[in-house]
Amino acid sequence: MEDTSKENEQQINVELSEEMAEGVYSNLAMIAHSNSEFILDFIRLMPGVPRAKVKARIIITPEHAKRLIAALKDNINKYEDQYGPIQSSQDSEPTFNFPISFGGPGGEA
Predict the structure, then answer these.
(1) Is residue 34 in some structural domain?
(2) Residue 70 in domain
(3) Which of 24, 29, 38, 62 is the least buried, fewest Cβ under 10 Å from its Cβ?
């Protein structure tokens, strides 16, 4: 019985180019959604610079958005178990104030 379930599992080989492996730094994320997709914009906001650039845009289905939340929660729990609680700055005053609108449905990050 176990052999059958192992045979049904698919293995996915993921390729990661050298350029993609370097990653992109983002210190701000904006999220918008429609009835069929979530749009995640990862932005780099530099101090003293009035313009911010979207460094990456990821578009996913609502189902994948929910899976992403679960995976992030799991990884945050593992991180905090190993390194201690992550300090949240939600309660403090933001160090920047900017009105950004991309003209689409609103979201929060």
Answers:
(1) yes
(2) yes
(3) 24
How many domains does the structure of the chain reveal?
Answer: 1
How far apart are alpha carbons 95 and 39 in whole angstroms? Answer: 25
**pLDDT tens digit at each of 109 positions of the chain:** 555 555 667 899 999 999 999 999 999 999 999 999 999 999 999 999 989 999 999 999 999 999 999 999 999 999 999 999 999 876 555 555 554 544 445 555 5
The whole domain housing 46 covers 25-83
What pTM does this model have?
0.69
How many CA atoms lie within 13 Å of 85's alpha carbon, on the beta-carbon side? 3
Residue 12, domain member (yes or no)? no
- Tell me the Cα Rg of the chain: 18
Number of residues assigned to the chain: 109
Task: Classify burial at 43, counting beta carbons within 10 Å of its beta carbon; exposed 0-12, middle 13-18, buried 19 or more.
Answer: middle
